[in-house]
Amino acid sequence: MEMPIFPLNNVVLFPGMMLPLHIFEMRYREMIGRCLEEKISFGVTLIEEGQEVGGSARPSLIGTAARIVRSERLEDGQMNITTVGTQRFRILELHHDHSYLTARVTQHPITNGATRQAAELGDRVRPQVLEYVDLLSKASKTKLQLDRLPEDPLTLAFLVAISLQISAKDKQRLLEAPGVPDILALESRLLARESRLMQFMIDTSEAVRAMNGGPTGYVFPN
Fold this sequence. Notes:
By secondary structure, the chain is of the alpha+beta class. The chain folds into two domains: 2-107, Archaeosine Trna-guanine Transglycosylase, Chain: A, domain 4, CATH 2.30.130; 116-211, Methane Monooxygenase Hydroxylase, Chain G, domain 1, CATH 1.20.58.1480. The chain contains five helices and seven strands, in the order E-E-H-E-E-E-E-E-H-H-H-H. The chain has helices at residues 26-38, 116-140, 153-163, 168-176, 180-211, and strands spanning 2-8, 18-23, 42-50, 57-59, 62-73, 79-95, 102-107. The protein has a five-stranded mixed β-barrel. The longest helix is centred in the C-terminal third of the chain and has 32 residues, at 180-211. It starts with a strand and ends in an 11-residue tail after the last helix. Residues 218-222 have low confidence and may be disordered.
């Protein structure tokens, strides 16, 4: 199957995730125009090398199809669109026949979502998520509330992947994990790491403020 490809810097799209985009480059106006006219999805991939604007970018081989759910064409031809991630795909071959990138892709479904291992890992991750949100709330001095976490391991895995405040590289690792148990196991390690970092920030915040409380507001090494 051929699919238009939209490589993005620092953005990893997951199934079920909403992604608003402002389309201003001519090649992507053409691409989105085609998607709207033919009622097809396009693929969102993280850029591995190159630039998002102008020139060419080498995309990651695993991405997520984006379905356009809302579009607004502006007077100057630019567009605002809202998309939702639908399913994972793998790039088999890149094509450069259009002004924008296209690829021959195959579906790359998530496996083992209903296994005992997935359920057990989901039970491990849920309390970690609650701890993470509590620490994030304290670190940001905002009231973050999480009412309920999904019971379904697949839904939980993608919710955590979307919500984690981590690098795009780490998010891509989650997207590329072959099955639900693999995603949840990696999320468990990432949650533990991020929670330790935030706890350290919280524990040392008073000392940092005291060090910066002098007449200059700067900390000098000597």
